[in-house]
Design a protein that fits this description.
- The chain is 25% helix and 30% strand.
- By secondary structure, it is α+β, with helices and mostly antiparallel strands.
- The N terminus is likely disordered.
């Protein structure tokens, strides 16, 4: 990808692509990627019953991450790239095949009703069924003839789908059996992943307790699919989901504190940039070269002025802002008093901020312009919050002396006045060497 090619995208929140019963797909940070957000919504009987279960999305995200990562490790191709935060994961954009693939190991549910087989009967072998994805029709069961006749998949793709389904079944059966859970049946979705002119079938959507029928191996009690409103209750449902996170630490879904956040990030690789937003640790995507050029320009320009004025403030990149006990964003560049204080023994944050700069990234536009604006402007010491686009000459200035009203600057000939620092910043200096400033 050419990061230095001008590409204008209005500074607005990331674009939703699709919203389903339990997930939302957003435009990804790079072409060919999407961000999959897990909701707390629980549905049953083709969404005829609905309930919100607090923390469900967090747990499903972690379980799905665990399963998909291990499938990738054993050579089963999936759309999963990595988990971004407690509710979101970065995935490859695929062309979803409109089929739910159901793998059955034990007679239960509709199979028992259709064929009169007693529930709990072990099937002679795993059976694969196809259901056409259409909520209005109730996801009807279809044959391979239907699939090929209507062009939903080719015979070769059906073979590939069935081979993937069996491999997923083998993995999940052993995974759940290890914690005393019997995999009765599950559904999986697949998609076409295009890489240039080449295409391959991969496992997509999610694999979590939402897509599985699971029984306790001792009591044969069904551990999933209690309809919303039944007596199992949200608390019991969450306990069940936590128990199913094989090999994954049990997740505490209450908001994380700043101290807990530091304990978490201390165990992460140094090159990762994390922020704490509303008690959730958020992993930021790697910055583009243009993003880093703009940050470099800011640091150089501000440092020169600081030294010329022998100013009582300093310029620091990579320092967090402690907004509250559960919020610790990290601007790209900060201007703070020379004698700043930190509540953190290692001085990794401060609440005494004069000016905060954020360079917009595709995946964080909405958060930078809305959540962070509210967070930073709540600090008594802040005089300016400045948001800089990296795909066009466009800067948004929120200034205390203007009641933090939005002011947009789109001309390369304009200058940003920072009266609290006693300096001004030309737009041309901010965008120098980015490919966005016309060469004279």
């Amino acid at each position: 990808m050419d990061f230095l090619k001008p590409r204008y995208t209005p500074m607005s929140r990331r674009r939703p692509i699709y919203e389903g019963k339990a997930k939302v797909l957003y435009e990804g940070p790079e072409p060919g990627t999407l961000i999959q957000h897990f909701k707390d919504d629980a549905t049953a009987f083709n969404a005829k019953k609905h309930q919100v279960i607090e923390g469900k999305g967090v747990l499903n995200n972690r379980i799905s991450e665990y399963v998909f990562q291990h499938l990738n490790d054993i050579g089963v191709p999936t759309h999963f790239i990595r988990r971004l935060n407690m509710r979101e994961q970065l995935i490859r954009e695929v062309e979803i095949i409109p089929l739910e693939v159901v793998v059955r190991n034990v007679a239960a549910g509709s199979l028992s009703q259709r064929l009169g087989i007693e529930e709990g009967t072990q099937l002679p072998r795993s059976i694969i069924e196809f259901y056409y994805k259409n909520d209005a029709l109730g996801d009807p069961m279809v044959s391979e003839e239907h699939v090929t006749a209507f062009g939903w998949a080719t015979p070769q793709e059906i073979d590939d789908i069935m081979a993937l389904a069996i491999r997923v079944n083998d993995f999940l059966t052993g995974l759940f059996l290890g914690v005393g859970i019997r995999l009765v049946d599950f559904k999986v979705e697949t998609g076409r992943l295009w890489e240039g002119d080449m295409m391959r079938i991969v496992v997509a959507d999610e694999i979590s307790p939402d897509s599985c029928r699971l029984w306790d191996t001792k009591s044969h009690h069904e551990r999933r699919r209690a309809a919303p409103g039944q007596r199992t209750g949200a608390g019991q449902e969450l306990k069940i989901r936590s128990a199913l996170m094989v090999g994954v630490p049990v997740i505490d879904t209450r908001p994380m504190t700043v101290e807990e956040f530091y304990a978490f990030t201390d165990a992460r690789p140094d090159e990762e940039k994390w922020e704490l937003i509303d008690g959730e640790p958020i992993l930021n995507a790697a910055p583009s070269p243009r993003h880093q050029w703009i940050v470099r320009n800011l640091v150089v320009a501000l440092t020169i002025r600081e030294r010329e004025l022998n100013a009582p403030w300093v310029v620091l990149p990579g320092l967090g802002v402690r907004v509250s006990n559960t919020d610790r964003p990290e601007p790209d560049v900060l201007v703070i008093p020379s004698d700043f204080r930190s509540l953190d023994p290692q001085e990794r944050d401060t609440s005494n901020v004069i000016v905060a700069f954020e360079v917009l990234s595709p995946s964080t536009k909405g958060r930078d312009l809305r959540w962070k604006r509210t967070a930073y402007t709540s600090l008594p010491s802040l005089t300016h919050y400045i948001v800089i686009a990296q795909d066009a000459v466009e800067v948004v200035v929120f200034a205390r002396d203007n009641d933090f009203a939005e002011r947009r600057i789109r001309s390369i000939d304009k200058t940003i006045e920072l009266r609290s620092l006693g300096i001004s910043l030309p737009m041309a200096e901010i965008y120098r060497d980015t490919g966005l400033v016309p060469v004279v």
